[in-house]
Design a protein that fits this description.
2 domains
Length: 438
């Protein structure tokens, strides 16, 4: 049943058997929102994307400083959102300096804290900034935060010089002793967002008929559409079409897995065989969740530290981790740069979708802040200085902020917390806010 008044509530849903579909912001909802969310103060979203094993600095760092009109080779795919992109260089994570530099790179990326060195279950870190933000702005959403990844099997035991694998498996920590596992299965995420459409047997039956779980909300949708203006009807139709398209891609992966002569037993049926397709599907699920205000905070671990994933599709058939140990070998450096540019291009795919998605008086990208980066700088040295760090979203971009001396990554954290309405004098080893981002 759709609850309607003179203006639609922001929490308007389409409902059917085992299905609940939240809707994007519609013009019909604006009067109901105006008292708590004026046009000049839209709902903000925050996201964090992790790329493992640092970067090749020469193709990554822009040549000019301050206001810039061009990006570097590795960041070139961000040019369509150049005016909303800020590159920050010469930051460091001093707290990550330890024996297990891959474990501490990942675990300190959103905490700026040195993890307790242990191989057991007595691990200790600190609450990550995404979870602090989720507690601040995610209380009114269906899902306070989404933690996503592409690695399907969690590592166990000792992963890096006495550091438990939990530090490499997880970016998000809701408390110093509670890591939040990443989810890599698109079907699981889809069902968290929209429901499962009944039992697994029901879903398989609908799959054989080439139907969608959205077919169960057609009656509710028809009732809603009669109450909307033409612009809102178009928005609802486009959003439902986007949900259906993502579901279709999940179904296609499941169908192909079912038809495989030698199925990959380690890969859930809904995970596409091609890694790039998997990444794009996970990004598209984030767009749907953000657009319908199901969540306002996401983290996405594109790959784990020490990943041995190969990228033959871009001319890098060698595993990522050994390639990152370049020892200044020109061939390895060139391949590392290819991997860096490839990862950024997939992030750009996501950003372009956010930019193209209307949200109130702007776009989702206008009302979002995303950080992409790594906890390693030079992977050959396993150091945590001159880290890759790019902030995208809002309206203050088109600049390269280069610290003259190494500055704490915690300054970036402190600034993002401030943007989320969390006022702190300091955070970890921070020395101040980055005013250009506020």
């Amino acid at each position: 049943m759709i609850v309607t008044k003179k203006a639609l509530p922001r929490r308007t849903f389409l409902r059917g058997m085992g299905v609940t579909v939240a809707l994007p912001l519609l013009d019909a909802m604006v009067p109901a929102l105006s008292a708590m969310t004026p046009a000049g103060n839209p709902v903000r979203r925050f996201g964090f994307v992790y790329i493992p094993m640092g970067m090749n600095p020469a193709p990554w760092i822009p040549k000019a400083e301050g206001k810039i009109t061009e990006l570097s080779t590795s960041l070139a795919s961000l040019m369509p959102v150049m005016d909303q992109t800020t590159v920050i260089t010469n930051t460091e994570l001093k707290m990550a300096n330890s024996a297990g530099n891959h474990a501490t790179a990942n675990s300190s990326f959103l905490t700026a804290t040195l993890a307790k060195r242990t191989e057991g279950n007595d691990y200790v870190l600190s609450t990550s900034i995404d979870q602090m933000i989720a507690k601040q702005i995610g209380r009114d959403t269906q899902i306070p935060s989404l933690e996503l990844g592409t690695d399907l099997i969690a590592m166990v035991g000792n992963c890096d010089n006495g550091y438990a694998c939990v530090y490499q498996n997880n970016l998000s920590w809701s408390s110093p002793t509670n890591p939040l596992p990443t989810e890599a299965d698109p079907r699981v995420i889809f069902e968290r967002l929209f429901g499962d459409g009944g039992s697994a047997k029901d879903r398989q039956s609908e799959l054989r008929k080439n139907r969608s779980i959205l077919d169960w909300v057609t009656e509710d949708m028809a009732s809603l559409q009669r109450k909307l203006g033409s612009g809102d009807r178009t928005k609802v139709t486009e959003y439902i079409d986007s949900v259906r398209e993502v579901e279709r891609r999940i179904q296609k992966a499941e169908q192909q897995a079912g038809e495989a002569v030698l199925p990959d037993l380690d890969r859930p049926a809904s995970v596409p065989a091609a890694w790039e397709d998997h990444v794009k599907l996970m990004f598209d699920l984030q767009v749907l969740a953000l657009q319908a205000d199901i969540t306002r905070v996401t983290t996405f671990q594109m790959a784990r530290e020490t990943s041995t994933r190969t990228y033959p599709q871009i001319g890098v058939p060698e595993p990522h981790h050994p390639t990152s140990h370049h020892s200044n070998d020109p061939e390895k450096l060139a391949k590392l740069a290819k991997i860096n540019a490839y990862h950024v291009s997939l992030f750009a795919y996501f950003l372009n979708k956010l930019k193209a998605t209307p949200d109130g008086d702007g776009s989702l990208l206008d009302h979002s802040t995303y950080l992409i980066g790594s906890g390693l700088g030079n992977p050959s040295l396993h150091n945590h200085t001159n880290l890759p760090c790019v902030v995208v979203g809002g309206h203050k971009g088109g600049r390269h902020i280069k610290y003259a001396e190494p500055a704490p990554m915690a300054n970036v954290h402190l600034t993002l917390l401030e943007k989320a309405g969390i006022h702190k004098e300091s955070w970890s080893d921070s020395t101040g806010h980055i005013e250009e981002l506020l």
